[in-house]
Each structure stands twice: as C-alpha cells, then as structure tokens.
Specification:
- By secondary structure, the chain is α/β, with parallel strands linked by helices.
- It is 32% helix and 27% strand.
- The protein contains 12 helices and 19 strands.
- The strands form 3 sheets. Strands 4, 5, 6, 7, 13, 14, 15, 16 and 17 form a 9-stranded mixed sheet that branches. Strands 1, 2, 9, 10, 11, 12, 18 and 19 form an 8-stranded mixed sheet that branches. Strands 3-8 form a two-stranded antiparallel sheet.
- A hairpin with a 2-residue loop joins strand 15 and strand 16.
- The two termini are 32 Å apart.
C-alpha cells in the first residue's frame, strides 16, 4: 500500500482548504491537499461570487423564528425544511432559535464583520499581486426592495453595519434606476454597500489551486477519505483508496461533508447541510453592473463579462442529491419581479450545493481539543468565499504558533466541546 508523508494534510480542495494551503505554504510548510471529488467542485463552484462584509449580520435575530415558520411549509419559499424525522436537525433548530436575541446577534455581528472585512481586503490584494483571472471587480452590492414596508423595516441592517464600521448607504428609487437601468419600475428603494466586491467563484478557486500548486503543494483529486488511524489522541494517518497519508498536522476543510467524516473521529460537529441553488446563463443584454440582492424574494443576481447568475435559497433536506426544480423556478419568478430582463438567452448550468451551517452562524477555525494534531476549518455557511482567505490565514497562524491577526476566540471549535 502506498504511504505518503507530509507536514500538513488538508482534507478538502474547496476555497477554504486551498486558502489554508496557501498561507501554510507561505510559512514554509509542506502541504498535501486531498479532495473526494474535483478542485472547487462543492459549494465553491456555483454560488453568486459576491464578497460581502455587508453580510455580517447573523441569520439568527429577533423575529426570525416567526418568519421562518411562515415560510417553511412553502416548498418554493426562500427558506424551506423538507419534512422528515431528524433529531439532529430538530436540535440544531432549537439552538438556532435560542440565539434569536439582540445580545447574541450583536456578538456574532462583530465576529463576522472582522473576518469578512479582513478577508475582503486579502482577496483584493491577492488577485492584484498574483494576476488572478477570475472576474474580480470592486463594484459593491445593492439590496433592492419592492415594498416600502420591507424597506422601512430594514433599518436594523443599516444600524448593525454602522455599529461595526461597515459602510452602507440608502438609495431612492430614482437613484437606483439611474444606477441600474436593468431594474423595473416595481423597485421602491434600496441600500448600497460600497465595500463589497465580486468574482467568478469557480475561476477564483481554479486560480487559487494554480497558486497553491505553484508554491509546491500537491493536490490529489478523486481521493475520498475512508478512515482515520488514531494513536495517543492524534490522527496518525488518513486512509484513502489511493493509499495512506501521514502528516504532523491534519486540517478538516470539507465544508458540509466535514460533519459525517468527523464522526469517525468521535467528533459531533453541529453542522447542517443548507442546500443552495443557482442558475447560470449567457449574459443578457440588460444585465446589472452591480451585484443585486432582491430582498423580498431573497434572490442574488451577479453578472460577469461572460455570464449571469441567479442564486440563493436555503433548503434543509439533509444530503438529498436531487435537483428540486421548484427552487429553480422560484429564482426565476423572483428575478422577474424586479428586473427588466431577468434571464439570459441560454441556460448554461443549473446547480445545487450544500453549505455547512452552524447554529451560531460562525465558522469553526482552530484546533480540536480531542485530537491534538487536528485543526477544523469548516462551518462557513453561505459565506465561504467571502471568509476564505482570512480563515486560511488564521488556520496557518494557529498551526505555526504565530500571533493571529484576528481575535480567534469567536471561531474556536472548543465552544462546541470539539
């Protein structure tokens, strides 16, 4: 049986695993990356590619439980739970509901703001210095509304971002129409986030893989982990169909698949797979210049020079691998309510993927208390690309013993006794 040794073995070649690899390589570590499929083939592939400090606010906030209950039985609603007996999901939902208060909201808002802002800056710098061809643009994002009542109720969002130093501006319907002629007359107003940016996520991940390989790492695809060999509270080796891998340090960065694999180590990571959808088109003639969030329908719209994508929705259906066409139809209907040209001339891809959702809406970045040489890098929810480089930087600092730039405590896996 083939056996390979390295300094750091990273499980997962998505945007988080590759970000960890990049910063570990910069610190002189030898790195091998394994992935069960292809580079960037998971949630990194089909999301809307926005880099959004504006998304600092946690999902859990006062009133969210009532709002979710109103939507959850509609199969085409932005938020949906597939009815089934699932004790772990029920427990996750109860803990999520317990976070829907302003004290927890403010604490998570601060923690997410620091990692999102740091990562946004790092990604911009990396793209510029390394010449990454990924459609990066610093255009900001626009949240647009069709009802004055919903826009008025959104005042908490402006307050929460300003409280953590993130720029946000209100815009009238007339200002929005002048800024984005693609918007229909149904739009009554919106909010502009000048600090946000965008990129094409699949290309960004491939470019990041290019940099990681160029810096000396080996990336091995189609290499699923079968089991772990443990010795004295350490991961002694990782067993795969392609052989056995040994390393001084192991990083678990498998997104939504981190939880089922971690059970083989006796770790119960409180992750639920939140299924998101997107449709990618050829670019329409009247496409937005700025990424949009169509708020009442929770649809994200992003355009690149050679493409156009509608995305979002949240479906808790376990690891169900069927494509729910109701969710795709909801994206189309939502876009049609706001946009003059809601779809492109040809569909290029219909996609779904699972986001790793924690009930406190914060990632797990840090060492396990049970496996001395295991570091967790997962649980980024819908913001994996947005948080990616700051997450990789923090993981590299923890593994190498450097002083972290960010306060690592909010993301410590030990908050879940892992």
């Amino acid at each position: 049986m083939r056996e390979t040794k390295t300094d750091v073995l990273i499980l997962g070649a998505g945007v988080i695993g590759l970000s960890c690899a990049w910063y570990l390589l910069q610190r002189g570590r030898r790195v091998t990356v394994l992935d069960r499929g292809r580079v960037g083939g998971g949630a990194s592939h089909g999301n809307c590619g926005t880099l959004t400090p504006s998304h600092a606010a946690p999902l859990a906030m006062p009133g969210m439980v009532t709002k979710a209950l109103r939507m959850m039985w509609r199969k085409d609603a932005p938020f949906h739970i597939a009815p089934r007996a699932d004790f772990e999901l029920f427990s996750w939902m109860l803990r999520f509901a317990g976070r829907c208060n302003w004290r927890d909201f403010n604490a998570v808002n601060r923690a997410k703001a620091q990692i999102l802002t740091r990562s946004r800056g790092l990604i911009g710098d990396l793209v510029a210095t390394q010449g990454m061809n990924c459609g990066f643009a610093e255009n900001g994002t626009l949240y647009v509304f069709r009802t004055q009542r919903e826009l008025d109720a959104f005042g908490w969002h402006l307050d929460s971002l300003r409280a953590v130093g993130i720029a946000v501006e209100e815009r009238s319907a007339a200002a929005l129409q002048a800024l984005e002629p693609c918007l229909s007359d149904s739009v009554v107003g919106g909010v502009f986030h000048s600090g946000d940016a965008q990129l094409r996520p699949d290309r960004y991940v491939m470019e990041l893989a290019r940099l990681v390989r160029g810096a000396g790492a080996e990336i091995i695809e189609d290499c699923a982990v079968d089991d772990f060999l443990l010795s004295a509270s350490r991961v002694a080796a990782v067993q795969t169909a392609q052989g056995r891998y040994r390393a001084e340090e192991v990083v678990l960065a498998l997104g939504a698949w981190s939880a089922p694999l971690a059970r083989r180590l006796g770790l119960r990571i409180p992750l639920q797979p939140g299924k998101g959808y997107s449709i990618t088109y050829e670019r329409p003639a009247l496409a937005p210049r700025i990424p949009l969030v169509l708020k009442e329908d929770s649809v994200c719209v992003t355009a690149w020079d050679d493409g156009y994508r509608l995305g979002s929705t949240m479906e808790f259906a376990g690891y169900d691998s069927s494509l729910n066409r109701l969710r795709l139809d909801a994206l189309r209907r939502g876009a049609a309510r706001y946009l003059r040209e809601p779809e492109g001339p040809r569909v290029c891809e219909e996609w779904f993927g699972w986001r790793p959702m924690t009930w406190d809406d914060l990632p797990l970045l840090g060492r396990s208390g049970r496996c001395a040489n295991l570091t967790l890098a997962t649980g980024h929810g819908m913001l994996g690309v947005s948080m990616s480089l700051a997450s990789g930087e923090l993981v590299a600092e923890i593994i190498t013993g450097a002083t972290p730039v960010l306060d690592p405590r909010p993301y410590d896996p030990m908050r879940f006794h892992l």
